[in-house]
Amino acid sequence: MRIGNAYDIHRLVEGRRLILGGVEIPYEKGLLGHSDADVLTHAIMDALLGALALGDIGKYFPPDDPAWEGANSIALLKQVMGLVGDRGWKIANIDSMVVAEQPKLKPHIATIQKRLSEAMELQPDQVSVKATTNEKLGPIGEKEAICSYAVALLMPI
Ligand code: MG
Which of 18, 23, 72, 150 could form a Cys-Cys staple with 30, CB 3.0–4.6 A? Predict the structure, then answer.
């Protein structure tokens, strides 16, 4: 078995869509980034790469490369799944956490879990998605950013 973990954070700004796990969440702000800034999908990709010591997403999708401008992170996740499969590994399970003061994510968790599990061709119970607030502390608590953590466990195909 192989295990990987990851963290990502993006700034919340006006004039951007909020995409989490490939799902657009209605909110007055969105995450700033070169791609669609899907902080949850980014953390999951980095956990998968980390499990196989393949580097980080910046190595495969450099933020200064115009090819990835506005990129759909679910499409990037599928590319990472290709790397994992090519090396003879598959996902046992993923556990993830989104830390956001607002919006409330509880109504969207099941949709995000379904979207991510379909993108990775997994069962929903292999893809845990959790959410918490930061108890109004720090930049996340001040609604200036959203961050995500993820852990991925891989097993041989
Ligand atoms: Mg990111």
Answer: 18
